[in-house]
Amino acid sequence: MAYDFDFAKVFAQFQYVKNTITSGDITMKGGQFGVSVPMGGGKVLASYGHTRSSGASDVKRHSWALGYDYELSKRTDVYAAYYSDKLTGLSRGDTFGVGIRTRF
């Protein structure tokens, strides 16, 4: 689902997955929310997601991202983004990326 408020675009989704396997069923429920806000000739992008499994697996995952996308032309943009991901029982993973993208 997405909606454009003119000053910002918001995005949301929900998912439900059930795996039936011999070692025990696993059910996963997850949701994600994001926003894109025009700022300084580009867009600030933010997203948060949460997933929880139950049954044979009991794991939680929290992920969030923050980025900026700037269009150089109709077909080319540059971007920078940071992503953080935390899974139950594991240390947090962090990723940072920058790049240039061209569409053909």
From TrEMBL:
Gene Ontology CC annotation, any one: mitochondrial outer membrane
Compartments where located: Mitochondrion outer membrane
Keyword Transmembrane: yes
SUPFAM superfamilies xrefs: Porins
One Pfam family per UniProt: Porin_4
Domain Porin: 2-86
Keywords from the named record: Membrane, Mitochondrion, Mitochondrion outer membrane, Transmembrane, Transmembrane beta strand
GO molecular function: porin activity
Name this polypeptide is given: Porin domain-containing protein
Location (main, coarse): mitochondrion
